[in-house]
Structure formats: C-alpha cells, structure tokens
User: Which sequence fits this backbone?
C-alpha cells in the first residue's frame, strides 16, 4: 500500500497543471461553502441571542415609527418615536398579556460627546424585566436619577478606552452620571445603550435643544410585553394590533428575521454558489480524470499485466482523486476561514454591530464537514472513470494506449 | 506448462486466430513469428491472461485460467508470468529501481530489503549498473528494454512472454537482449517470444502465425504460405518440441 501511495504521489507530481486545477476547483467550492455556513450560523446565533436578550415576547412601538423602530430595537441606533403612555394600560388588558414595561428613547447625541454613537433609553424600573436580569453586578438599591446602567461597550465608546469600571463618571447632554452597573455583552445594540430612570429621561428631553416639540411625561417609545403562560406570542401580538391599530408589534423572531433579511440573501447566494461550485468541481474532476485515464491507458494496462487487479486499479485512481480532493478541501477551509476573518469587520458594520460570530468549536465542525463534503465530491467525480478503466481488459488498455 | 487449445479470436469481422493450439513445455523457448497484424500479440496476450479468446481454452500448469475469477487471474499474472512489451514500457515518474520493484508492489506485500537487493542484482544481470536512481527518460532504448526484462523477472515467474522485445533496437543491442533471454531460459524459465528477428529462430522452437493458423517455422518466411493452403481448419496443433500433435 505504501508503494501505491508513492505511485499516486509521483503521478500527481508528473501533471502539476491538472493537479493544481483540480485542487483549485475543490478548494473554491469548499471555501464558498465554508463561508456560507459560518455566515449562516452567525445569523442564527445572532437571532437566537438577540431574541433571548430582548427578554420580551412582544415589542410594541408606535405604528408610525416604521424602520426607525427596527433600527433602534436591534442595533441601538439613536432615534426617537413616541406614543401615549396610556397605551401600556390598554396593551396590558389584551387577553394573553401577563406583564408590560415601558421604555422611552431619547433623541440622542451626535458624535461630539462620544467616540461612537450611544443610545439613551429611560426604563420603568418597577416593571422592568428586560434590563435588570442582565446586569453584571446586582444593584442593592434602585437606580437613582444620577445613575446609569450602561451597555458593555458604552464606556469605551464614550471615553475611547476599554475601561469597564462601575462607579465611573460619564457626562451625557451636559449632565454627569455615575455608572451603577454594566450589562453583559451581547454583541447587539444594547452594548451601546445607556439606561436611565424614566424621570431622568424626561428631564433630559425637556432640557434638550434637540426637541422642538416637547415630549410630555405621558409619552413612551416602546412597550415590552411578556405573554401569559401557554399564550401564543404571535396570536397575542395580532390581538394587540387588532385592538390598538396605532401600535405596531414585533415578536423577537420576526424582528430579527426582518432585520437580517438582507444578510440571509447573501448567505443563500453563497450556499447556491457553493453547491454550483461543488457540482463544477465534481464535473471537472470527472473530466480531468477521464482524460487522465485515457492518457494513461497503456500504463494502466501495464499495471494490470504486472498483476494489478481491477480493485487495485480502481483504488489507485480514486486514491489519486482523494489526495487532490483532500488537499483542495484543506486549502478551501483555509481560504474560507481567511475570507470570513477578513470580512468580519465589513459584515459587522453592514448590520450595525449586531452580528455575532460562531464559536471556535463550530468553526472546527464546519471546517471538518465542508472539507469532508468537498472531498466526497472530488472522489465522486473520479468514480466513473475509475470504474470504467478497471473493467477494461489489460490487453485492450495496452492497445488503446498505443 | 502452457496449453492453448483451439483458440479463436475475431476483431469485428476479421478472424485473427482460428482454432490455434500450442503446447509449451516447462523450460521451453518458443519463438512465434509472422506478418504484422497477423495475431501474434493477440496470441501472446491470450497465453498471458491479458485478454480472453472467443473460443478455446488456456491452461497454465493444468489450470484452466479462463475459469479463474479476476482477482486470481491478476495474482497469476503477478506471480507466474513476466511480460516484456514491444514498446517502451517503463513507468515514467518512477526510477529504474522502482520500476523493477513494481511487480512486488502489485503483489500482496510491500517490497522489503531482500526485494531491493534482488532487484539490484537483476539490474546487474541485465547490464544496468549505477543507474538505479535514474528515470526512464534518462536511459537509451536498449537500456530501457533491459530494465523491462529485469522487471519481468522480479517476481521470479516461471514464464516470460516477450512481444517483439528488440523491435526498435540496433543489431548489436538486439543480439545482447536476445542473449539475455537465452540466459533466462537456460536458468529454467519458459520463454515465449514474438519476434521478427528470425536470425534467432534457432534459440528454440519457432512457429509462424499466418492467416489465423500456427505452423512450425520451416526456415523460410515463404514456407508457411505454402503450408497455409487449405485454410485454417487444417492448422495443426504443435508442441514446443516441434511435433505436430
């Protein structure tokens, strides 16, 4: 068997162009599939984490807020939209609703104060079920009006350094605040959000020159809803919209899907390309091996004359294809990994810091699976010519090769 | 012993062999000659289990090889038969030594040190020394043929089948190669050779293949023409001892 490997190696060295062409085709298919799988997984992880992190079964926003609401809810982009606070009571009365909590978004700051834009959100401490469960250090007392809870990246966004100190003083809209706690990192817009008491939020709105039309204390931006046990969030969501047409509702899943639609199209395109390249690689391997087998007909006839059985000839050709396919698969994984690595920043920017990359274990799993799949494709391409040549009579092979 | 009985072979509408019979005793040297395209290589290939006849039987050491399953047939080719072809038959990407060791690689084991030593001694016997690490393209035609002979001997076969092994060589090299075959035969190996080099017909028993029939070589190329009259149905079966059976 060792000598068979040697024979395969020598033959591959003899035809460098064919060898590299096959390796390249398999590598391309593998790299595209690898990238698609990683991106797809990233989207899945992001959606799941975002849904978990949101902590609410339904998010209700003013129907007029449109895309601004999506952008604020997911990416934490500074924006503002308001609706009467009385709607929270109305929502609470909808069958299936167990708990509600209001938040108010501040039309936020420009970059003058901060290294990166941050969103300011006032939240109802008494009813909250979406912020306090995620703080890194539990607070012994309720948040005071001069205190804030900040997302994991707020401090570095404001002061430009990756400091992460509770008790640090930060200025927003000319008002000093003390960081009371920091939220766990999520990779989502929450990482760039500052949470204040409702009272402070209304005070800041009233004192801000950004608001030409004053926002009253009976206005809120979002209503976060928890449904009763056994209730279907989609049904409850529909009921809320039916009873309160001035409200638009989102379930976390639908929210994430609508936001990541564009990226999903990219992943779909990559998967399609990967499958097409895979078919192409199989066809190319098949063609190249058919040509190779024709060129080596006499050599194969000689092998048979020397006692190589049909099985051995078949294995020789398939082993050769396997060597090329494995090399292509490994190269493809490296290229795919590099491609996803270098495009990481771009993708993250494309979707507003919300994208979460899969963990190392998943990278390894995908690397093994895509390399195995493309190796199988390469071998598949060589099966037909290998099967055909192994069935030929030695004398015929020698004659045809002359 | 090789026993070919009533072999028939057609390629499309051309009858190449018509009820050809031949018995080659162990240790015999048989030369088969005839016109190009006359079926000599086909006959040799059938004797060496490289192709199957349309009819007839082929026995090697009393075993009907046409009844053997393919793996056993491959093993038989590997252990009992050494082939020397009319064309340059060395494997280009392998060195001289690796070419000689190939038949071992196709057996059920990997070559060991003893195989390597034996391969080197075979190369010495055929006059190739100090060239073990060279590639076939670095050898002359005569040297390549010598290496091919060494390779054919690698698994110590009892039968060597040589198909015009001196076809494209000059007279001096041809004589050297024929001497090699003679030496191999003297050591007890059966040699069946297809050749146009009738000067060497005296090395053993010679036959002419003509119009699908096999006849004893009568010392002149024209002799078989006369003998072939009456059609191949009359083609006699002959033994390697020169007797019409």
Assistant:
């Amino acid at each position: 068997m060792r000598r068979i490997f040697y024979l395969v190696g020598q033959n591959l060295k003899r035809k460098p162009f064919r060898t590299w062409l096959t390796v390249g085709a398999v590598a391309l298919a593998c790299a595209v599939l690898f990238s698609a799988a990683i991106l797809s997984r990233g989207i899945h992880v992001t959606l799941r984490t975002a849904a978990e992190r949101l902590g609410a079964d339904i998010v209700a926003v003013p129907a007029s807020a449109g895309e601004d609401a999506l952008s604020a809810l997911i990416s934490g982009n500074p924006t503002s939209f308001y609706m009467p606070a009385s709607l929270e009571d109305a929502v609470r009365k909808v069958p299936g609703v167990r708990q509600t909590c209001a938040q108010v978004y501040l039309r936020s700051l420009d970059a003058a104060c901060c290294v990166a834009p941050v969103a300011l959100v006032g939240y109802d401490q008494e009813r909250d079920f979406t912020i306090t469960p995620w703080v890194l250090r539990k607070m012994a007392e309720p948040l005071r009006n001069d205190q804030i809870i900040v997302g994991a990246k707020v401090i570095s966004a404001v002061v430009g350094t990756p400091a992460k100190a509770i008790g640090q003083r930060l200025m927003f809209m000319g008002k000093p605040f003390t960081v009371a706690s920091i939220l766990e990192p999520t990779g989502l817009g929450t990482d760039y959000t500052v949470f204040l008491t409702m009272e402070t939020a209304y005070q800041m709105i009233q004192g801000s020159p950004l608001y030409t039309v004053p926002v009253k204390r009976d206005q809120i931006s979002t209503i976060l809803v928890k449904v009763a046990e056994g209730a279907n969030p989609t049904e409850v969501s529909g009921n809320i919209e039916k009873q309160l047409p001035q409200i638009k509702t989102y379930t976390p899943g639908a929210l994430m899907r609508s936001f990541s639609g564009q990226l999903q199209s990219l992943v779909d395109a990559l998967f399609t390309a990967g499958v097409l390249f895979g078919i192409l690689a199989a066809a190319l391997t098949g063609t190249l091996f058919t040509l190779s087998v024709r060129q080596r007909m006499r050599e194969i006839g000689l092998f048979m004359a020397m006692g190589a059985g049909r099985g051995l000839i078949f294995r020789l050709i398939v082993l050769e294809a396997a060597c090329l396919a494995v090399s292509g698969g490994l190269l493809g994984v490296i290229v795919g990994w590099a491609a996803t690595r270098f495009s990481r920043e771009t993708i993250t920017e494309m979707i507003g810091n919300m994208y979460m990359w899969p963990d190392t274990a998943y990278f390894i799993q995908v690397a093994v699976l895509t390399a195995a799949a493309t190796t199988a494709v390469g071998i598949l391409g060589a099966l037909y010519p290998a099967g055909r040549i192994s069935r030929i009579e030695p004398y015929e092979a020698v004659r045809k090769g002359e | 012993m090789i026993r070919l009985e009533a072999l028939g072979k057609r390629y499309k509408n051309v009858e190449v062999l018509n009820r050809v019979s031949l018995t080659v005793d162990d240790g015999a040297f048989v030369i088969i000659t005839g016109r190009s395209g006359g079926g000599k290589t086909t006959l040799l290939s059938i004797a060496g289990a490289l192709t199957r006849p349309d009819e007839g039987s082929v026995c090697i050491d009393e075993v009907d090889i046409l009844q053997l399953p393919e793996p056993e047939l491959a093993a038989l080719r590997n252990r009992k038969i050494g082939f020397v072809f009319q064309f340059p038959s060395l494997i280009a990407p392998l060195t001289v030594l690796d070419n000689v060791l190939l038949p071992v690689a196709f057996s059920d084991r990997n070559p060991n040190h003893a195989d390597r030593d034996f391969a080197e001694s075979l190369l010495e016997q055929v006059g190739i020394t100090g060239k073990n690490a060279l590639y076939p393209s670095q050898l002359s035609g005569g040297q390549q043929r010598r290496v091919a002979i060494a390779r054919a001997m690698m698994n110590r076969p009892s039968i060597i089948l040589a198909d015009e092994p001196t076809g494209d060589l000059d007279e001096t090299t041809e004589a050297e190669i024929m001497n090699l075959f003679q030496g191999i035969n003297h050591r007890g190996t059966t040699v069946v050779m297809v050749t146009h080099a009738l000067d060497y017909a005296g090395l053993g028993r010679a036959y002419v293949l003509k119009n699908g029939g096999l006849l004893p070589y009568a010392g002149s190329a024209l002799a078989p023409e006369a003998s072939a009259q009456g059609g191949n149905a009359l083609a006699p079966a002959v033994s390697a001892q020169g007797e019409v059976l």
Q: What stands out?
A: The helical segments of chain B are 40-47, 70-80, 96-105, 113-125, 141-153, 171-186, 223-227. The longest strand of chain B covers residues 14-24.
